[in-house]
Write a structure and sequence with these properties.
The structure is a homodimer. By secondary structure, chain A is an alpha/beta fold. Chain A has two domains: about 170 residues, 3-Layer(aba) Sandwich (Rossmann fold), CATH 3.40.50.360; about 55 residues. In chain A, about 45% of the residues lie in helices and about 15% in strands. In chain A, strands 1, 2, 3, 4, 5 and 6 form a six-stranded parallel β-sheet that branches. At the A-B interface, helix 4 and helix 6 of A face helix 4 and helix 6 of B.
């Protein structure tokens, strides 16, 4: 699966959360990071080039800081220009049909404020409806969002957790079954560069992989037995 | 009451609805039209100038065509730049508190599609939550919106009706009482240039004003009687 991460952030070098997320993206994976403000600082978007780029990917992710309850202006310009009639919608506009669409949003205010009675008054789900409508119109499947609230207040542990969720968000097949989650973890563990671990950690890593695979075999066998009983 | 109409439309000269609405704005009223694409074609917004402009008005109206379930990109840039911390929100950001905020949105698809099961899937109310949240954050009072569906399919009568609603949207005091609506109509009728009417129409115009004023007097007298009876 190939994933295109379209980032819009006018001050990405100064953003702790963006730098942290970016540093974790593995280079050997089918992930392309596409930072709009670096490519189009003057807001003149190369529409044909962007449209051709989109066609190559299975999952499109918009990643941005929450500016006035939406994306920064350049991502809106990108939408207005690139997602044209005849390409993204309309009778001949089928280029995005069947792709997956995700949102990674960094938010400076705590989650509790995004509800009736809270300082922001509306939930993230409510505020993101325009993007959900965009996915509907273009025939893309809307994925569960990954909102990141107050990154700078996260503990080291919470940040590590976020990294795993982020990597999964970009790379893991959509299905949420235990089998898919296991498969993803095993692949991640196997691709870990074990030459950088000491002997003890190498042993733990291999044991972990073995345990997960053995459990999976047992579960699969039990399922066959159950099927035969029906 | 002074009203600032901030229009964002990349092709305003080609837009039938925008030209129709603009042609109706009376010059002697406290209305300023501010078309962003004419002033900032390169997306470089003069923040100080815009902030000073905003301070002069009681009612701020965003007027735009619906692009991807929101405003065109330049209006988003305007929001991102002009509505800064310390001006529009935050501890010292009280510049917009108490003003009124309105939305005039022209929409190419018919209203029925904006609901669950319709082609667009979501209502205009749902899709406009980010603007409602902006009004909340900046302390502005959110006015009922004026969405215009499929302008080009309207009959001449419907267009005339729209013009009256639009003029009221820009100029009428918020209160929806019969007295306020009457007052607005009488002022509009009185400011009609009667030299351009023939004698018959002049007579009708004057009669209309007299009737409304007489009715108002009768109603007011009845109210006094009722008050005395209590």
């Amino acid at each position: 699966m190939k994933t295109l991460v379209i980032i819009s952030h006018p001050e990405i070098m100064e953003s702790g959360s963006q730098q942290y997320l970016l540093s974790s993206i593995p280079e050997n994976k089918d992930i392309t990071v596409h930072h709009l403000e670096s490519i189009y600082p003057d807001f003149n978007i190369d529409v044909k080039k962007e449209q051709n780029l989109l066609k190559e990917y299975d999952r499109i992710v918009f990643q941005f800081p929450f500016y006035w309850y939406s994306a920064p202006a350049l991502l809106k310009k990108w939408q207005d220009d690139v997602l044209a009639d005849g390409f993204a919608y309309g009778k001949k506009g089928k280029a995005l049909v069947g792709k997956e669409f995700g949102l990674v949003i960094s938010i400076g205010v705590r989650k509790e404020e995004y509800q009736p009675g809270g300082r922001e008054g509306f939930s993230i789900d409510e505020l993101m409806k325009p993007f959900q409508a965009m996915a509907l119109k273009t025939g893309m499947e809307f994925l569960k969002m990954l909102p990141i609230f107050q990154f700078s207040y996260l503990t080291e542990n919470q940040k590590m957790n976020l990294l795993i969720r982020y990597q999964q968000y970009l790379t893991r097949e959509k299905e949420d079954s235990l089998a898919v989650r296991e498969k993803w973890f095993i692949e991640e563990l196997k691709s870990t560069d074990s030459s950088k671990l000491n002997d003890g950690n190498q042993f733990v890593l291999n044991q972990a992989i073995e345990f997960i695979e053995e459990n999976r075999d047992t579960i699969d066998e039990l399922k066959i037995v159950l099927d035969q009983m029906n």
